[in-house]
Design a protein that fits this description.
By secondary structure, the chain is mainly alpha-helical. The chain is built from five helices and no strands.
Length: about 140
């Protein structure tokens, strides 16, 4: 079971690792989009969010305070969904539908992060193949 959980952690974290690296290596494109959403200091925010995602995803993959890693990912996904996939502000029905799907994806990922946080914080070392025990104890 430990190996299956590890594979699941890696697969789950891949999207955040890829996106985080993109935030750090393709900053120009990301800054333009963040600017269009009216974010202050978009260059700093793009870089900071890239580091945030990479660090949190590595925490999940490596099992270093994995419960905190899941909370950090949820804390990223919620505002990202609200700010960048604000379908309720889009006039074009087709584009609104695309943004709504992306927003709902963020809602789903948030639910998964919270469920996995609780599972990790409850089971603790029973999950195996981790470097540290969870930071939180829900048992």
């Amino acid at each position: 079971m430990d190996v299956i959980v590890l594979i699941g952690r890696v697969l789950f974290a891949l999207v955040f690792l890829g996106s985080g690296v993109a935030h750090l290596t393709q900053t120009g494109n990301m800054v333009g989009y963040a600017s269009s959403k009216g974010l202050p200091n978009p260059s700093l925010l793009v870089r900071a969010s890239g580091v945030w995602m990479v660090v949190a995803a590595l925490m999940v993959v490596l099992g270093v305070w994995m419960d905190l890693g899941f909370l950090l990912l949820a804390a990223f996904v919620v505002p990202a969904g609200v700010i960048f996939h604000d379908f309720w502000k889009v006039d074009d029905p087709q584009q609104a539908s695309v943004e709504q799907a992306q927003f709902m994806k963020n809602v789903s990922i948030t639910g998964a992060c919270l469920a996995l946080f609780a599972l990790v914080a409850y089971l603790g070392p029973e999950l195996g193949l981790t470097i540290t025990e969870p930071l939180f104890d829900l048992s």
